[in-house]
Every structure is written in C-alpha cells, then in structure tokens.
Amino acid sequence: xxxxxxxxxxxxxxxxxxxxxxxxxxxxxxxxxxxxxxxxxxxxxxxxxxxxxxxxxxxxxxxxxxxxxxxxxxxxxxxxxxxxxxxxxxxxxxxxxxxxxxxxxxxxxxxxxxxxxxxxxxxxxxxxxxxxxxxxxxxxxxxxxxxxxxxxxxxxxxxxxxxxxxxxxxxxxxxxxxxxxxxxxxxxxxxxxxxxxxxxxxxxxxxxxxxxxxxxxxxxxxxxxxxxxxxxxxxxxxxxxxxxxxxxxxxxxxxxxxxxxxxxxxxxxxxxxxxxxxxxxxxxxxxxxxxxxxxxxxxxxxxxxxxxxxxxxxxxxxxxxxxxxxxxxxxxxxxxxxxxxxxxxxxxxxxxxxxxxxxxxxxxxxxxxxxxxxxxxxxxxxxxxxxxxxxxxxxxxxxxxxxxxxxxxxxxxxxxxxxxxxxxxxxxxxxxxxxxxxxxxxxxxxxxxxxxxxxxxxxxxxxxxxxxxxxxxxxxxxxxxxxxxxxxxxxxxxxxxxxxxxxxxxxxxxxxxxxxxxxxxxxxxxxxxxxxxxxxxxxxxxxxxxxxxxxxxxxxxxxxxxxxxxxxxxxxxxxxxxxxxxxxxx
Length: 586
Ligand code: ADP
Description:
Blueprint (H helix, E strand, L loop, with lengths): L1 H5 L1 H6 L1 H17 L2 H14 L5 H50 L2 H6 L2 H44 L1 H8 L2 H38 L1 H6 L3 H53 L5 H43 L19 E8 L9 E8 L4 E6 L5 H9 L6 E6 L2 E2 L5 H7 E4 L10 H5 L8 H10 L3 H6 L17 H14 L4 E5 L7 H14 L4 E5 L11 E6 L2 E6 L1 H7 L2 H17 L6
Parallel strand pairs: 3-8, 3-9, 6-7, 7-8
Antiparallel strand pairs: 1-2, 1-4, 4-5, 9-10
Helix pairs in contact: 3-5, 3-7, 4-5, 4-12, 5-7, 7-8, 7-12, 8-11, 9-11, 9-12, 11-12, 16-18, 20-21
Bound molecules: adenosine-5'-diphosphate.
C-alpha cells in the first residue's frame, strides 16, 4: 500500500474531491444494502400472506428513491475519483515532458526513445490506475465488504455468515493470482507484438536493401518465427483467462452451495425465515465484487508503485547543462575566441579535443575540416553548450558562454546539424520553427538564401506541402536546405553549419555560400565540411586530427604549406572535375 503514501501529496492537494468521492461511494454501498433486505421482507410477507398493495407500494417508493440517490451518488463518485486520477496523470505527464525538454542530448543518447515513451504512457497509466481504480477497490473492498458482512450478521445470521465466508479468502487470492498472471502474460504478448510491428516497419522501410541483397526468404523466415512467438504468447494469455473465470465461478459456487445448504437447515429448524435466506443469498452476491476488488487491489498498487518509482527516478535526474549562478540575461555578440585545453567525453580516456586555441573577429567565417571522428562536430557543439568543457573556455564578445543564460546563448546561434530533422508539418512551419509568427515574406526570403525556394514552388501545395513522417518525401539535399533556411530565419549572430551541405551538389553549395556572404553582414559563420570547397573562402581554416589542430590558416596558406589540406583539396578538385565533366566551381 506504499503507493498511497507516495501519492499522499496529491491526495492532500485534491482532498475535497477525494473526500466527496469516498463519501458518495460509501453512500452508494450503503444504499445497495437495501434491496436484498426489502426482497427478504417481501418474500416473508408473501409467505405469511400479509403483503398488501399499500405495503408493496411503500417499499417500491423507498426502492425508487434509493435508486435515484444511488444513481446520483454513482455519478458523483466516479467524477470525483476517476476525474482526480486523470488529472494526476496529466500532471505527471506534463512534469515528465517538461523534464525531458530540460535534458541535454547526453540524456537522450543514454536512453532508448521506446523506454522514455513507455514511461510517459504505460507507467503514467499505472499510476493513474492506482489513484483511481486503486482507491475505488480499496474503499469498496473495505466499506462495501464490511457493510455486506455487517448486514448479513445483523439482519440474517452470524453463523451462516461465518460459514459462507469460508471460501472468500480463496476468491481474493485467486483473483490476485490470476490478475497478476494475466497482466504478466499480456505484457509479454504486447511486447512481442510491438517487436513484430517494429520488424514489419523496418522491413518496409528497408525493402530496397532487403531486395538488393536477396534477403527476402531469410526475412520471411524471421517474420514467421516472430509471428509464431506472438501467437504462442497470446495463447498463454487466453489460457490464463480461460482458467480465471471458471476458478472464480467455482469458488462463488462453493459459497452459494455452503450458504444454501446450511441456510436450508436453519430454515427447517426454524432459526431463520425463507425471506432471510433470500436476503442472505442476495447479500452473498453483493460480497463477490468487494472480494474480487480486494484481489485486484494488490495488483493495482503493486504496478502503481513500481511505475511511480520509475517516474520519480526519471524526474530526479538533474539536467547536466544548466545556467551558471549569476548568468547574464542578454544575447551575446562580437568576436569569438576558443581556448579549449582538454575535452574528454565521459567514459573515454583519450581527449576528443586538445589545445584548441583560435579567435575570429565578428563577421568572419571559420572552416573546420578533418577526417571523420577528428572532432569537428564536438568543437561546434561546444559552442551550443550541448555539453560543458571543464578545462577551457569559449568567449563571445569577450564574455564566456558560461556566463550568459543558456536560452540567450542559443538565441545567438543558428545551428544546422548533420542529422537534420524535419517535423511532420508544412514546409513553411518547418522553416518558421524557431519563429512561428514569421511572415511569409521572411520565410520566402530565407528559402531563397538557402536555395530551396524554387524546389518548394515545384510542389503542388508549395510552402503548404506537409513533410516528415506523414508528408512528402524530400531528398537529403532538400531537407538540408530547409534546415538551413530554418536557421537563417532567426538571423543569428553566429551560424553553425555542421557538415550541412554534404547532400547538395557543388554548384548549389556555391550559391548558398555566396548568398550567406552577401546577406550576413557582420555576422559570424562556422562551417564544418568534408568537401573542402565549402570552406575554401573562410577567413580561417582549421584542420583537425584526433582532436588537435594540425594545420591552420587561409586556403592560400594551407595550399602553400602543401600538407593534408592541399592534397585533399587537389584530390577533391579532380573528383569534381570528373563528376562535373570538366567544370571546376571555385
Ligand atoms: P567529426 O565531427 O569530426 O566526425 P566528432 O566530433 O563527431 O567528429 O567525434 C570526435 C570523437 O569524439 C570521436 O572519437 C567520437 O567517437 C567521439 N564522440 C563524439 N560524440 C561523443 C559522445 N557523445 N560521447 C562519447 N564520445 C563521443
């Protein structure tokens, strides 16, 4: 029952709703004691031939009034108890989502999206159940069960009550056992089904690869096996279900058997009337639900507690990247300087960056190149504070990025990541993501700068074309250019293009870079690229290797030095010459 203590803060907060709900629930239980009693009285009256229309009418009116009260009470307690539990789910869901938005990318790297989704859905549902069904089953099993037993003892016979109650603990135990078994098996069946779903999704998405490698048969085999697994797990659920109902029916039957046989003896001996036995049997029927509820309660609270524990554990994780004490509340701008002595990722021993020292004047362009894994993305992401550097500092306009508020720092930066992401929304909405109120004129202006305007017009619905999961499929290059337009719309002080031109052709790349140059007066740009033509006009080019700067300078000086940069540049020129059929874009 720890979950009720754990959720005490919420029950306190909603005490009036719960109190009213519980009072009406108990009122409802109390009223339900009446019909069996009335039936017994009427049966006895019939037997004694004392039932007059007036007596019958009186009881009918009483039952009708009780019915109306019970109806109203039932409506109120459901509203109060279930309403509160749904509101608790909303509160936890909001908290969790808010918490997720505060987390740094490292948090999401360490966890599977599927698990986080499960916490936001299944776990919250289990806690909601504890705060709704849990309270209902707790109150019902205690109050309704108690009232029925008291009615049986006081209105009928304590001896018969004792006899009839013998199988009841088994009923509660069987309910608890089978409900738990059913839940576990159902969970396994669901997990198998979602795995099968993932498999189908992956197969459809990757159908080209499967066909290209001639793996259709192997995939079909794997699917057949997984499908059989889903079937066997569902049959296990059906088996548990098939055992559940007959067991309960059997135990209930035992209760009736005991009460009717012993009750009949009492009636024959004259210690009980037929009417009382009738009432008793009806009360017995009313005792079944509280006993089932008692059994269910264990499962509900157990699941609720485990789920609540998982949610709390998630909520306790503090965001790694936070505003430092006294952080300034303004958007930084000015010259950029990097002074990184050492940056080591958690669980790594070799630094990802070492001795990175350079400066850029406001408005200049930096080019970062190097082999894959040389540290280009790490260097650029440090500026965004996706993670913090303990041994080093980055300054903008002479001010450490750690001394301004995170939100303001990010306002200063437009970041186009390597793994661009478009939402399932229109192209216009995707471009205006960081500025939802942007005018169509501005959206079109940045789309032109990113060289995507003409492509967009080719779609039937133009800027209103829906993209992403539920929309049209765009090429990698189109996605990249929409991402660039998105970053340009906020007209950032510092624009970071992290290998964001890799999927566009050299000619388009050239056009975009020229447009940036012409339109970003006095604004700084940091570009990392594999294709060196993307950074050849940069004011400063850094060549990274194993996290260290191995070459630095302008294109001309690096060419003159004739090291990795120069040889790579010549090789890429040659490749481009072959691809373009003899045209070199410089
Ligand atoms: P590049 O952008 O030049 O390909 P990265 O900056 O992505 O290089 O990676 C530099 C090095 O840091 C690589 O060895 C990579 O494995 C490592 N690295 C990158 N991101 C992480 C991370 N989140 N955790 C641990 N190591 C990382």
